[in-house]
Structure formats: structure tokens, C-alpha cells
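Dear H.,

Thanks for agreeing to be a second pair of eyes. The structure we're designing against is below in C-alpha cell form, covering all 295 positions.
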């Protein structure tokens, strides 16, 4: 069935992202667009396995004539998932993106407090991450900017902002909506090339056919930058693996995914044998690198 794999992949990506903790009370921000509709549906499917309690929220910014249609979509999806929906209407004094974003998050935070939620969940995806990193580059940002959006960060005391879809392609989210016959709205402002993010989006769309792995590569670079900036344990384990390999093999042809498989074993104290590339085998025993062999 078309879309069946996307369903599973999206749900698996959410669980593996670490953005949402088991047993949390979460508020799902839903704009009515395909990304947030897919997020709501996926979290509905995961609410049992992850023991989640979830609510939905729709924020009407008060500037688009079609906002009531988006609200109807959000209400329809909430009903299909069995989620209660909170609708918040803003009265913005300014219509610029930064001001609207600030008002939107303030409204979501207040709703999360009222519901006793520990996380506000948004549907930012892989393409959004690519745009964020590129905009940071154009601003001349340093390592913090190159790290892009974190999967989880504090929003307020006891409430986090969770983004579990940062490694998921927008196409997979639309496929999920189609597979589950879910309605979604299309925001016409996404076509406004006068907005900087939309201009960057158009440029990236032109590049993706030439660089099919573009978004995955940017997401990987952002993850590396974030780990290094935070001096995380994973960053240290990654350096340890690469240092061991450098003593025995040429690093150039070793894929990032192979290194990460060994790093996950080290993190979890497991044992295993991991092919880094043809002829180079790295062995991990009880959370330590035990040796590298060339075959």
C-alpha cells in the first residue's frame, strides 16, 4: 500500500529522535498544514506504546483570511485522533515573522501550562532544518547557528520545545496524510518569494535533484555541530572511534552511519562487530573499542 512504509518510518523517527520522553503530557502545535497533521496522527498512533497524554492547539495569527479553514482542518484532525483542541486567536500589533513567532510560542506555552504539559511539540522537519542552517550561514553565525534547531530544548520552567521530525522529509509527512486520508491545508504565503526563508526554500528545491542527500547531509552536519558545541558524550565517543580508525585505516571512505553504529554500541555498553568499509572491521566489547582488524 502506498504510504505504508512512510507511516512506519515517521513513527520510528519520532521514537528514535529522543525529542519526546515516554509518559509525557504533550501539546501538539497544529497549523492545519500537512506536516503538523502528520505529526498529530503519528503521535496518536504512538500514544499507547509511548504512554503519552496529548492535546492539540491551533493558533490563529489573525492576518490570513483562510485561517478559519485551517482551523476547521485542525478540528477535523483532532476529532479523528480523539484529541481535545485548544484554539487561540492572536491580536498582533505587528505582522513580521519574528513578532508573530514570539506571540505564537507565548500562546502555546500558556496553553501547555494550563494543560499541565511537559512539552510543546512542533512539526519542523528535515527541509526546515536545512533552511535554518543555511540562513544561519548567511547571517555569519558561528557553531551555535550551524547546529540548527535542537530536537529538544527548554521553553520555560518544566516545559520543553520538542521537534521529533527533524530527520524526516516533508514528502514522507505528506505521504502519511495521503495514506491515512487526512485533510490538510496549504499556506499560500509559502509561495511569497519576498520572504527570506521562502527564497532559501526555492533555492534548495532547485538543488535537491542534483544533490539527493542534501537534507540528510545538512541534518548530519547540524547534529555534529550541536554535539561538538555542547561537548556531549557522543561527540567524545565519536572522536575516540575516529582516532582508533585513523591509526589503522584511511578515514576518507568511511561512512558516517558506520561510525554512528559503533558509537551507539559504546554509549549503551554493548558488544558487536562493525564493518567500517570493505576490509576494515571495528570490534566493540562491553562498551569499549577492543580492536580494529583489516581483512
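And this is the sequence the design step returned. I haven't edited it by hand at all.
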Amino acid at each position: 500500500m502506498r504510504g505504508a512504509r512512510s507511516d512506519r518510518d515517521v513513527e520510528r523517527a519520532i521514537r528514535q529522535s529522543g525529542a519526546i520522553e515516554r509518559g509525557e503530557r504533550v501539546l501538539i502545535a497544529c497549523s492545519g498544514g500537512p506536516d503538523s497533521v502528520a505529526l498529530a496522527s503519528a503521535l496518536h498512533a504512538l500514544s499507547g506504546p509511548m504512554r503519552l497524554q496529548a492535546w492539540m492547539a491551533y493558533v490563529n495569527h489573525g492576518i490570513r483570511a483562510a485561517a478559519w479553514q485551517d482551523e476547521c482542518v485542525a478540528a477535523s484532525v483532532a476529532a479523528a485522533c480523539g484529541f481535545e483542541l485548544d484554539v487561540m486567536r492572536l491580536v498582533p500589533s505587528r505582522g513580521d515573522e519574528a513578532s508573530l513567532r514570539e506571540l505564537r510560542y507565548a500562546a502555546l506555552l500558556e496553553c501547555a501550562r494550563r494543560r499541565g504539559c511537559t512539552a510543546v511539540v512542533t512539526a519542523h522537519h528535515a527541509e526546515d532544518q536545512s533552511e535554518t542552517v543555511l540562513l544561519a550561514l548567511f547571517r555569519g553565525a558561528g557553531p551555535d547557528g550551524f547546529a540548527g534547531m535542537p530536537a529538544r530544548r527548554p521553553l520555560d520552567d518544566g516545559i520543553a520545545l520538542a521537534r521529533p521530525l527533524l530527520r524526516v522529509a516533508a514528502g514522507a509527512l505528506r505521504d502519511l496524510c495521503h495514506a491515512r486520508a487526512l485533510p490538510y491545508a496549504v499556506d499560500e504565503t509559502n509561495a511569497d518569494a519576498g520572504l527570506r526563508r521562502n527564497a532559501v526554500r526555492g533555492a534548495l528545491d532547485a538543488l535537491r535533484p542534483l544533490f539527493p542527500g542534501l537534507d540528510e547531509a545538512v541534518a548530519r552536519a547540524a547534529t555534529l555541530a550541536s554535539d561538538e558545541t555542547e561537548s556531549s558524550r557522543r561527540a567524545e565517543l565519536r572522536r575516540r572511534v575516529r582516532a582508533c580508525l585513523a591509526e589503522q585505516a584511511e578515514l576518507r571512505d568511511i561512512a558516517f552511519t558506520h561510525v554512528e553504529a559503533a558509537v551507539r554500541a559504546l554509549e549503551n555498553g554493548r558488544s558487536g562487530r562493525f564493518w567500517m568499509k570493505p576490509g576494515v572491521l571495528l570490534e566493540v566489547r562491553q562498551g569499549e573499542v577492543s580492536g580494529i582488524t583489516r581483512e
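Two observations from my side: The chain has a mean pLDDT of 89. The chain is about 50% helix and 15% strand.

Warmly,
E.
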